[in-house]
Specification:
Strand order of the largest sheet: 1-2
Low-confidence stretches: none
Order of helices and strands: HHEEH
Helix content: 40-55%
Distance between the termini: 65 Å
Number of strands: 2
Largest sheet: 2 strands, antiparallel
Structural class: mainly alpha
Number of helices: 3
C-alpha cells in the first residue's frame, strides 16, 4: 500500500493513477466524501467559492483533469495552512480586565 506522499508524487509526475489511490488522497486531505448513489464522489474543501472536489472512477483509473484539480486543491490548502501559521496569534483575554459598565 503506497503512502499518501508517494501517491501525490506519482500524481505530479503525470503517470497513471488508480482511482483508489486518488480516493485515498482526497479522503486524507478533505475528509469523508458525499456520495448520493452516483459514480461521483464529492469532497468538501475549506474555502469559499466552489468548495468541492468531484472525482469519479473511470474503469479503475483516475481522470487526468480530476488529478490536476486535486493537486491544485492540495496546493491551495497548503498555502492556506502556511498563511495561518504566519498569522500573529490573537491576544488572550485575561481575568484582570475590568468588566464594562452598562449604559
Amino acid at each position: 500500500m503506497a503512502g499518501i506522499e508517494s501517491i501525490v508524487e506519482q500524481m505530479k509526475a503525470g503517470g497513471v493513477v488508480h482511482f483508489g489511490d486518488l480516493f485515498k488522497v482526497c479522503q486524507h486531505y478533505f475528509g469523508k466524501p458525499r456520495n448520493s448513489g452516483s459514480s461521483h464522489f464529492i469532497f468538501k474543501t475549506p474555502w469559499p467559492g466552489d468548495p468541492r472536489i468531484n472525482i469519479q472512477n473511470d474503469k479503475g483509473k483516475a481522470k487526468p483533469y480530476q488529478i490536476r484539480q486535486v493537486l491544485a486543491a492540495i496546493e491551495k490548502l497548503a498555502d492556506m495552512q502556511a498563511q495561518q501559521a504566519k498569522a500573529p496569534a490573537k491576544p488572550e483575554i485575561t481575568a484582570d480586565r475590568k468588566p464594562r459598565k452598562k449604559r
